[in-house]
Specification:
heterodimer; A: about 100 residues; mainly alpha; extended; B: about 130 residues; two-stranded antiparallel ribbon; 4 helices; about 5% strand
């Protein structure tokens, strides 16, 4: 599969913009909580080749057909639920291990 | 001898001058506080980050800040969310002055239904998997 150069440029620019935005937000959070969060993660995707086929496919569709506000909110809700469940389970596991 | 800490004007940290005064029965004297600096700045930072995102995030994070058993779990959740790319929404292409609107046969495609979107993602992912 070859991506059209113009489309590739547009996708790369958007990925770079998101990467910069996430790095800045994460850096602020890690500055405030250096003991809790440790060093900044280095594995944030910055090139199209860093994305899995599924993530790249979703990214392409999102850039070409931006999701509606309702869809973005629904996704945010699903992601929040998944992250909070995962983090809570980890915290519970750590507390049980400690006890 | 440890270096003396320089307190700047407006620094919220406790100082000797801020040590609250208690009455004879141990109650705080009016106007005194055991924590003159207020709540730690950390949670305010988490809330500030949430404001960059959607209303639902603000609601959920606000709920978590108020009810979570562990502040650390809330901090970890915020960090995870940022790491997973829950970034600001993509700018609509039709509103980009430097780029033409995406179209098929000259007709701009404004929206996709959820089913169309899922089918398109699956189709592209399948093509990418086949190519790798």
């Amino acid at each position: 599969v070859t991506i059209d150069p113009a489309l590739s440029d547009r996708l790369t620019a958007e990925l770079q913009r998101r990467h910069t935005s996430r790095r800045e937000a994460l850096a602020r959070l890690h500055d405030v909580f250096p003991d809790e969060l440790g060093p900044l993660p280095e594995d944030l995707p910055v090139e199209l080749g860093d994305l899995s086929p599924e993530a790249l496919a979703e990214f392409v569709v999102d850039v070409l057909w931006p999701p509606s506000a309702e869809e973005r909110q629904a996704r945010a809700g699903r992601l929040l639920d998944a992250v909070f469940e995962e983090v809570s389970a980890k915290a519970e596991g750590a507390a049980n291990a400690h006890n | 001898m440890p270096a003396a800490r320089v307190l700047l004007s407006g620094d919220p940290e406790n100082t000797l001058a801020d040590v609250p005064k208690r009455g004879v029965r141990g109650r705080w004297v009016p106007g005194a506080s055991p924590n003159p600096g207020g709540r730690p700045a950390g949670m305010a930072e988490v809330r500030g980050l949430a404001r960059s995102y959607t209303a639902i995030a603000i609601e959920k994070l606000a709920h978590l800040v108020q009810h979570a058993k562990s502040e650390q779990a809330c901090i970890a959740a915020a960090s995870e969310l940022l790491s997973r790319g829950w970034g600001k929404p993509t700018q609509p292409i039709a509103g980009d002055d430097d780029m033409p609107a995406i179209g098929i046969n000259g007709t701009a495609v404004a929206t996709l239904t959820a089913e169309e979107r899922a089918a398109l993602v699956a189709s592209i992912a399948e093509s990418l998997r086949g190519a790798s």
